[in-house]
Amino acid sequence: MRYAVMSDVHSNPAALEMALEDARRFACDRYVLLGDTTGYGYDVEGAVRLVRSKFDVVLMGNHDSACLGREPAREVAACRNYDIDVRQGRELSHADRVWLGRRKLVLKERGAVFAHGSFFDPEEWGYVLSVHDAAENFHECSAGLMFCGHTHKAAVWEERPDGKVRQKMSFGSPAVKPESRSFSQAQGCRYIVDVGSVGYPRNDLCITYVVWDADARKVTFRRLPFDFRGYITEMLDRNVDMPGWLYQLLVWGQLMELGRGPSDNRGGESET
After folding, report:
1. Coil, strand or helix at 195
2. Pick from 15, 5, 2: which is nearest to 147 by CA?
3. How far does Cα 245 stand from its chain's mean position?
4. The domain 2-257 is classified under which CATH number: 3.60.21.10, 3.30.1330.10, 2.30.30.100, 3.30.2390.10?
5. How far is CA 203 from CA 14, 123, 197, in A?
6. CA 48, chain centre distance (Å)
7. How far apart are CA 217 and CA 243, in angstroms?
8. What is the spatial distance between Cα 85 and Cα 107, in angstroms, rounded to a whole number?
9. Cys-Cys link to 41, which of 12, 166, 244, 255 (CB 3.0-4.6 A)?
10. How big is the CA angle at 54 (ends 225 and 22), to the nearest 5 degrees?
11. Local structure of residue 142 (DSSP, 8 states)
């Protein structure tokens, strides 16, 4: 059984189409989306329509929750990004809102757990960004394999049999052509796999998702080039309200083209 595991589409159906086309090449049997169909982009209706037609399981993300008006008023007031979700909620049809509202927070299947963010108190939308975050999630969840998104940064965290936790994989430079990086699940080890973002990566400016071969116990990251700078520029032309970090991506992309961007960080962090 092969799973295509994706997250954080954020109203970008063009990027999602590319990811889905790529996943078909791997003969994936089951398609799982870890939430945040909505938010940030300018085509929320197209994203929802595509997600509804292509995925076997779709989970709830924090932006989906905000889109439905479920996030606490204090959170919406404090987070400018949620303003976009509130407006998008008015754009969706009643049927799409009902469908979105029925999304679950957690999926358990084939010995793995899937969630948008952290695996304890999932509705609090915690991030897994550090060794400490990973260790906390390993402590709270007994599964051997956990898939999440939310951070928009693809990564793998490993807990070894002696209880030590380390970052096993991270990514930096964008993919200039389709590429794969894989690891096999070692006996006695547990893993948290952050699948990155299909629609809005933050650190590598490329589409990222995961193919999990449950029978072979192998996880493969797929990284696909996409013109995110062009997409963001189009958003500017459409006067779409955007958070500041999207503008930073434009500057970062220009530095990368000039060879002055940050290097690809593939090393691990300190253990805890």
Report:
1. coil
2. 5
3. 16
4. 3.60.21.10
5. 19, 25, 10
6. 16
7. 38
8. 24
9. 12
10. 30
11. -
Count of CA atoms in the C-beta half-sphere (13 A) of 77: 3
Q: Which residue has tokens 């995110």? A: 228
* pLDDT value of residue 255: 54
Distance CA 171, CA 50 (A): 27
Token pair 């085509």 is found at 43
- Taking the alpha carbons at both ends of the chain, their separation in whole angstroms is 34
**Length of the chain in terms of residues written:** 272
**Residue 262: predicted pLDDT:** 41
CA atoms within 13 A on the CB side of 172: 9
Q: Which pairing describes strands 218-225 and 165-170: parallel, antiparallel, or unpaired?
A: unpaired
Residue 123: partners with Cβ closer than 8 Å, 6 or more residues away: 65, 105
Question: pLDDT value at position 253?
Answer: 58
So what's the pLDDT on residue 74?
A: 84
SS3 state at 221: strand
Per-residue pLDDT, 65: 97
Secondary structure of 81-123 in HEC code, one letter for each residue: HHHHHHHHHHHCCHHHHHHHHCCECEEEECCEEEECCCCCCHH
